[in-house]
């Protein structure tokens, strides 16, 4: 029941009811909300204190607007206890509850990461507070749940409310956008498309956000062509594409390596009056770096600047990481200098990438200079940077210094991760100090750092190389009992250890187990070389040939070590000795017939190094494969693109 007020406003009513000094204070507290910095949590708003003590100062009643002000203040402070008190007081005084009060509270629950509280309050609105829910409050709660990443819960909430006749809520465009977003995040793209097609039937029209969300979902599923078609449909239906829609597609095409189509979309953006922004350029730079076209990526950065689009940390980080992955960390460091010349500072992720890359390239002194420069400029190193430095020190064999850095890292409150410890373990094993590597393993457990598959692989590999096959088998069994995923490195290390310990059959048994695993744990060229070498060392060439046939059938190409293993065996263990020319020639022919030209080229390279000339027919076959018209055109195109820069 709403209490009728006199024609005068609430403020005028208070002027007549309160002393002048109290009225002045009351006005101030409403105009300038007080936010307490008390360490004991949110303090009651000053106006709330006045309301509670009002009976001693004169008779008055709060206006609905004042209650709304209180709700806003308590919601802003995330003081949910006081919010419930206000709601209780409003119920006692039979005040009218309006939807905007609840929407403010829903947003507060979202900010506090309490989505279930928002859902509960939504269901309380109609019964307890006699306030009818509309699509506005429904969308507000739905958005809170989705923002927390609870996509299944959001769809469940949506289905329950829409199906219930007691709510009688009709979805609008925003509702459909939120539902499509939740479905796409769950990978339910086909269901999202069904909802999308239903929108016009519900007297709604999809907007640019709807299209962008669905495009993103399709791209995440690798259905880029469908997403591009949706852009065309969007324009036909009269919905003007915004930069977000274009960026979704450009980013997906760049990640897929289709830079030509991405460039056409950028041209289309300009034609539609959409100006490429930093997201567009970052996607293009990322795509060029993935393709290894670093010079073009630098040119794109310059074009970005000329277009008055300011590169951000993502732009420079992507470019620097691209150089590092190509083994050009020094060039990446020059990009960092360029970044600083533009008045920006490299962050810890950029430094960690460069330090790690320089260490892997053996440029440890440069990495250390960069470390000191980073610390000197006030950029605090994080776990990633510390771990990169420790890894570099271990690669240089400076294990005592690596241990000192680990101690410094811990003392400054940065927790070492599995990579940090595994680098130190590998360093100790390579230095032949296996007991210290095992101590690091135990230290991980003390520091509550989980032993992952990489750590187990390093431990097994180190123990096997140290000849401690019994201990390695114990670790292997522990790995199996704990459900740790076995990777190629663990298998290869264990097989190598068993073969070196003259336990060939056990090694072959593990090898056969690998062949029965999924594609991610199939033997690689290192695994095959271990088995091939073991059979050849035991003068069992026929079984080695069988393994080689399996290798070729499984799509794994031989490398230089494979060739050396067989060449040595043919020279030393065959009577009469053979130089291996016919063997390698036949291997080249088999690879060419399987259309594995790169693998065949590597064998040819080995033959030339060993002065074992291939047959004329083999030469003709390999040259014909290498000089296919499409391959030649591709090489010519790459040359022209390089000359243009």
UniProtKB/TrEMBL annotation:
It holds the Pfam family PPR_1. The lineage of its organism: Eukaryota, Viridiplantae, Streptophyta, Embryophyta, Tracheophyta. Belongs to the PPR family. P subfamily. It comes from Vigna angularis var. angularis. Keywords: Repeat. This is Pentacotripeptide-repeat region of PRORP domain-containing protein. Gene3D superfamilies: Tetratricopeptide repeat domain (1.25.40.10). InterPro entries: PPR-containing_protein, PPR_rpt, TPR-like_helical_dom_sf. PPR repeats lie at residues 172-206, 207-241, 242-276, 277-311, 312-346, 347-381, 382-416, 417-451, 452-486, 487-521, 524-558.
């Amino acid at each position: 029941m709403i209490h009728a007020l006199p024609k005068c406003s609430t403020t005028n009513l208070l002027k007549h009811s309160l002393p002048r000094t109290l009225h002045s204070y009351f006005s101030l507290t409403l105009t300038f909300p007080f936010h307490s910095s008390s360490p004991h949590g949110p303090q009651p708003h000053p106006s709330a204190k006045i309301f509670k003590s009002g009976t001693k100062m004169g008779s008055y009643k709060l206006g609905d607007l004042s209650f709304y002000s209180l709700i806003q203040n308590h919601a802003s402070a995330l003081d949910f206890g006081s919010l419930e008190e206000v709601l209780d007081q409003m119920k006692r005084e039979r005040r009218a509850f309006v939807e905007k009060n609840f929407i403010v509270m829903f947003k507060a629950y979202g900010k506090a990461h309490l989505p279930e509280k928002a859902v509960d309050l939504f269901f309380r609105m109609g019964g307890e507070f006699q306030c009818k829910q509309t699509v506005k409050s429904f969308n507000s709660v739905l958005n809170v749940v989705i923002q927390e990443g609870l996509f299944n819960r959001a769809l469940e909430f949506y289905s329950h409310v829409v199906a219930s006749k007691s709510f009688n809520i009709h979805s609008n465009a925003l509702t459909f956008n939120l539902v499509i977003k939740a479905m796409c995040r769950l990978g339910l793209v086909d269901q999202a498309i069904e909802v999308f097609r239903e929108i016009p039937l519900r007297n709604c029209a999809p907007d640019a956000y709807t299209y962008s969300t669905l495009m993103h979902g399709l791209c995440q599923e690798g259905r880029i062509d469908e997403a591009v078609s949706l852009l065309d449909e969007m324009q036909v239906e009269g919905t003007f594409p915004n930069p977000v829609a274009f960026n979704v597609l450009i980013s997906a095409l760049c990640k897929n390596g289709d830079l030509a189509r991405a460039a056409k979309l950028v041209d289309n953006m300009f034609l539609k009056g959409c100006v490429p922004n930093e997201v567009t350029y970052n996607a293009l730079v990322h795509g060029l770096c993935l393709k290894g076209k670093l010079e073009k990526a630098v040119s794109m950065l310059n074009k970005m600047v000329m277009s008055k689009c300011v590169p951000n940390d993502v732009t420079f980080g992507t470019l620097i990481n691209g150089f590092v992955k190509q083994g050009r960390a020094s060039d990446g460091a020059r990009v960092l200098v360029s970044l600083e010349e533009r008045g920006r500072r490299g962050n810890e992720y950029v430094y960690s990438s460069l330090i790690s890359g320089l260490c892997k390239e053996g440029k440890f002194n440069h990495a250390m200079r960069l470390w000191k420069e980073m610390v000197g400029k006030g950029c605090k190193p994080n776990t990633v940077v510390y771990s990169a430095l420790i890894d570099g020190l271990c690669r240089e064999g400076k294990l005592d210094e690596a241990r000192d850095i680990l101690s410094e890292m811990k003392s400054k409150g940065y927790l070492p991760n599995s990579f940090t410890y595994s680098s130190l373990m590998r360093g100790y094993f390579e230095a032949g100090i296996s007991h210290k590597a095992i101590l690091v393993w135990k230290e991980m457990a003390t520091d509550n750092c989980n032993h992952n598959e990489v750590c187990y692989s390093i431990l097994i590999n180190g123990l096997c190389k140290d000849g401690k096959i019994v201990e390695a088998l114990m670790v292997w069994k522990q790995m199996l009992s704990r459900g740790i995923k076995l990777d190629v490195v663990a298998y290869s290390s264990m097989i190598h250890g068993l073969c070196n310990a003259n336990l060939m059959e056990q090694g072959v048994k593990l090898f056969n187990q690998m062949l029965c695993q999924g594609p991610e744990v199939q033997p690689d060229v290192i695994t095959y070389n271990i088995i091939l070498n073991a059979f050849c060392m035991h003068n069992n060439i026929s079984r080695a040939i069988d393994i080689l046939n399996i290798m070729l059938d499984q799509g794994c190409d031989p490398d230089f070590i494979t060739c050396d293993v067989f060449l040595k065996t043919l020279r030393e263990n065959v009577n009469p000795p053979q130089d291996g020319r016919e063997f390698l020639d036949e291997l080249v022919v088999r690879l060419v017939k399987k259309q594995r030209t790169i693998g065949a080229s590597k064998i040819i390279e080995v033959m030339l190094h060993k002065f074992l000339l291939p047959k004329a027919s083999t030469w003709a076959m390999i040259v014909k494969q290498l000089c296919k018209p499409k391959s030649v055109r591709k090489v010519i195109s790459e040359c022209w693109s390089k000359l243009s820069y």
